[in-house]
Amino acid sequence: MIRPATREEFPQLVDIWLRASRQAHPFIPEACWKARADDMALRRLPACEVQVLEAGRRVIGFSAMRGDHLEALFVDPEVQSFGHGSGLMAHAMEGHHCITLWVYCRNVRAVSFYRRLGFSIVDEREDPETGEQESLMAWSR
Q: Using one digit for the tens of pLDDT, what is the confidence trace for 2-13?
């Protein structure tokens, strides 16, 4: 079931984000992720429309949209590769005519995932916090 998140769930969402980020981005030091955790909980998530994916009364993933921009899409690493991310994206895509997102270029799995959903790379930049290259990806109906 996909439903709106409550603020009380934000610590749990940050935990999913942190564990999934460590796994998906081994090229970024763990200290960087830990340093960003408060920002995620206190600034980024509250500024977004956050949807959670529940399975058996357990939150296993979430998406965070800010307007037409996907700020975050994360699934608990314990339950990845079962289509949960695709389900969250399908839900987000239903409510938008276009979506943009930034993804680290070295996160080949995520880039491939978004390409399968119809996203294309439209720009690139260097993330000022990590020095890593990022791609701006876009999708539209």
A: 999 999 999 999
107 vs 10: CA distance, rounded Å: 24
What tokens appear for 27 in the block? 């090229």
Place of tokens 């942190």: 18
Q: How far apart are the C-alpha atoms of 52 and 58, rounded to whole Å?
A: 10
pTM (predicted TM-score): 0.92
The tokens describing 131, both together, are 């020095």
pLDDT per position as a tens digit, 83-123: 789 999 999 999 899 999 999 999 999 999 999 999 999 99
> For 2-140, CATH number?
3.40.630.30
Report yes or no: 77 and 19 within 8 Å, Cβ to Cβ.
yes
Continuous H helices in the chain: 10-24, 30-39, 84-94, 108-116
So where are the chain's domains?
A: 2-140
Two structure tokens written together for 34: 């830990």
